[in-house]
Structure formats: structure tokens, C-alpha cells
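Justification of computing resources. Each target in the renewal requires a structure prediction run like the one illustrated here; the chain below, 90 residues long, is used simply to show the kind of job we budget for.
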Amino acid sequence: MNKNDLISAVADASGLTKSDATKAVEGVFDAITGALKKGDEVRLVGFGTFSVAKRKASTGRNPRTGEPMKIKASAQPKFKAGKGLKDAVN
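Resulting C-alpha cells:
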């Protein structure tokens, strides 16, 4: 399922027009992204939790040449599925 499929599914399930469903889906994505940028966690009970994990700087190796290279520290978004989502999938 891609973004357009998701928008169509939301429109069908909620009775919204595709235009309104697009705004709703975009709004949810923007809200989650904004919260993660601030370092907050987004908990959707029964669905899952979006959070940010900090990765330390490290030294890796270039796979082509084998020479060492520095990997910068970064923040990685992560998602942990909730019980409701796990139960629905299994």
C-alpha cells in the first residue's frame, strides 16, 4: 500500500472526499513528523509508538576500498508496534 492507496482507503472508510482525506492523512504525517523533530514521542494506544533514537558517531569501513571512514552521529526515527496492531496481524 502506498500513500495514494492509504488516502483512498481513508476516504472510503470515513466517507470523506479524496481531497479531505488527503488533508487528513497529510495532517497526521505532519503532526507526527513535527513531534519527532522536537524530540517528543507519539503514542497511539493499541497501534504503536513513534520515537527518536540517537545514534553515536562511529568509525566504519568503505566496502569498496576497505579504508576507515567516520560516520556522523544522527537521530533515527523508530516505530514500535503496539499490542493491538500485533494481535491484528497475527
